[in-house]
Amino acid sequence: MSLFFLIGFGALCAALYHVCPMRGRWVLLLAVSYAYYAYCGLSAVPFLLLTTLTTWAGALIIGRIGEKSKAELRARKAELSAQDKKRIRAAAKSRQRIAFFAVLLLNFGVLAVVKYAKDVLGLFGIQSPGFLLPLGISFYTFASMGYLIDVYNAKYAPERNPARFALFVSFFPQMIQGPIARYDQLAGQLYEPHRFGIESCERAALLMLWGFFKKKVLADRALPLVESVFANQGEYGGAVIAVAVLFYSLQQYCDFSGGIDLVAGIAELFGIRLAPNFKRPYFAVSLGDFWRRWHISLGAWMRDYVFYPFALTKPMAAISKKLKSRCGADFARAFPAAAGNVLVFLLVGIWHGATGNYVMWGFYNGLILAFSALMEPRYRRFNEKHAAMVRTRGFYVLRVLRTFLIVNIGWYFDRALRAGDAFAMLFKTVADWRLDQIADGVLLTLGVTARDMRILAVGTAIVFGVSLMRERGADVRAMLTGEKHTAVRWAILMGFTLFVLGTFVTTGDAGGFMYALF
Amino acid sequence: MKHTAKRLARLIAFGLVLLLLITLGNVFFVRTDAVSVMTLREMYAREDIELAFIGSSIVREHVNPAILEEKTGMKTFDASFLSATLAADIAVATELFKGNDPKWTVLAVELSTLHTAKEKTETQFMIAPHIRDPRVTLKYYMDLCAQDGLYIDRALMWRTYYPRSMDELTKTLGMRFAPEKTFEKVSAESAERMTYMGAGFQRMKGGTSAEKTIRREIISTGEAFYTDALLPATQEQLLEFKALCEAEGTNLIVVCFPWHTANVLSRSDYLPYTGRLLEFCADNGIACYDLTRARPSLMPNLDAYYIDPYHMSGEGADIFSEALGDFLVRAMAGEELSGEFYASDAEYLASIDFITNTWIVPGEGDAYMADCSTGSLVVPEYRFELIGADGESTLVRDYDTGARIEVEIPDGMNLRVWARPQGGEQRSGVYYDYPADYAAFYGEE
Prior knowledge:
heterodimer; A: 3 domains; B: alpha/beta; 2 domains; four-stranded antiparallel beta sheet; 19 helices; about 20% strand
């Protein structure tokens, strides 16, 4: 799917949306979302329909069981004993649980089959039946299951109109690579008609340009070097590998966050604000902080639907209680969180792919977060003792750099083709630099020219500068679309637009969003 | 409301300024081919062109207008540009016809103009920034994009063809603002290779020979393109060109210019496809001639003058122009010329009584197979030698019709094959070296 098609399609649909009668706007959104999805691959539509219909029906059944039991309790309020009420509630919950798990298992089952059948069958030497991964299946499955869990937990009432629910699942900008929508945050925006506003369109266009810049100028430009080195890691020393990992840091961030900015911009053309998915992650001061800034919607999903339900279970409470006497109160208190982090990141690793390197990547992140959770009381005491030093800019920068290093070690596993490759590359980065390869200009033989290097340097500086401004609280988009200093704003915007137009990558294998594969 | 209108006006103004900057970039910040600029400038300045040649570099380097003028008595001009296809030809002809009323227009085509309607992007940057009518530029752009879909690359030419150095920038701006003075300087720099003679003619210096390139590149029968009919886009563009000429009142002749014989024989689609061109033109009332199929009485074989598989030296261009002039005079007079062309592909192939080039294909182990390009009636015979680094030759096998040889090529030596028609003379350049280490030998050249 061409990025230009997505932009053109988004702009055209937004224009149609704003001339469409108010009442029909959400219907138009549904129609164009399905049209887009069908255009991307007709064979994926049944998967989308299956998830939509089963989740809608499942949530409705869960809701009705709940309502019915409440009605019964209300109607027979006087005649029922406390025990009877408890029994009715338990019976209702039991029936809800059956519906809930049936839909949950069906949808995660479909996801698991299309995602992992090839890898798992391959382990047993069986040829995969060749499932095509439907576009965005992870994202809409997670969004739908989040909705189902919320309805099951009676967080909100189920949507009765299947078409309206279908729009929540299929809203086209977020189909490619998220963010993972939350029903209570997005649905209302989808159904209410939005008025056209020139200011919001300007802001949306700017966000799209920014996303396009990150994706097409930086990510796609860095890609060839990353692919060359990771595919042939045996040929390179630690210095080239370290550069490739840094390029991957840039490429992955710009690809994913650029894509998110682009689709968020398209959504804003309709007046709809998607949940933020990135918050300048490379400014994080700890790994935990990093994961609260990177792929925020997945992190929040995991936190709400895996981490808390796991960490707050009765068995975990019992383990914590037992640990209190043996390992101390601090350790016992932190243990459920530590175990929860390991579980969450193992799941996230497996979500990326059922291969050793992803499992290792998840395990690595989970272990560090678990260690941090267990060490939290000591950190707190250290920070209190050295409060003055901790508040200095130097210490802040040190923490940012430390986090960047930790994250980048994780990227070795995330990007390597096999876990063994990742270990070999890590070893070479530490023990076998082979600086002569850098001196010999090997980097310029990996699909990236000297001009590309210059563009990457300038582009990275721009991303860093803008991120720094935003980190300090500046609303850069507001500054650029405001009323003051028109000449300066125009010069900046014009210069940036021409830079993007002059340098974006149009050829090669690059183009698709890497997270669309998940 | 007032606020919204103001913002909208500002947004539109921003868009217009951006568009203006992009356009200026396409005009002033795109590298320049000096000869193309001079050709277009002269074309716009002239009002007396009576015989116009439209086409690609084979026109620019092969048609000497002075000779054509002498032969036909008509003021002649070569409106031709490197790798131009029919889309460029239509744009250039449209502009040429605005200031000139040529009596005759010769559209020169070659296989590479016909088998794909896609034009290289570098051709566009040579022409488009210097076309004066923006409507023609836009149509040219749309015609090109309709074929290859490169809307962005072609709309933002400065992305790819921006001046790479200060020298290039100076040249680009110089060709825009002080073309004569700049061209003088540029000409001096390229004088060893060629001289621009005016009227669109670029005289290539001799000295280099096509033999080496042919030995290196033309070693097989090549890939055959679709040959059932002319591409639909080519058909449309030929008819559009015809309509353009009719509207202008100029007589159109389509001529397929010849290539080096080795190049013709290397392409199995050459004769079928140019045959389709002749059929299409006949069906649509367009006068069309394929000079590849011309008998020597009309067009002598000029292989010896080629500096690459497509282009001739200035000396060859003069001989070609003489023959072309004679031919055009007769064609314009309405003379029946079918007798001057071979009646069939088979007759043409049978007429080639020499070997154009030879090569070696490795077999299993130490076995090698020789092959060559030649006419259909020639029986080739091969001679194999081992050539040392010092040039010393050791005969492996003397001339024989057997193409297979089994020999171990010692390190640092080449297996050389010579080819000649059985019992005939050996042409000096018709040999091929297969080295012990093929990749090292040919890979870096």
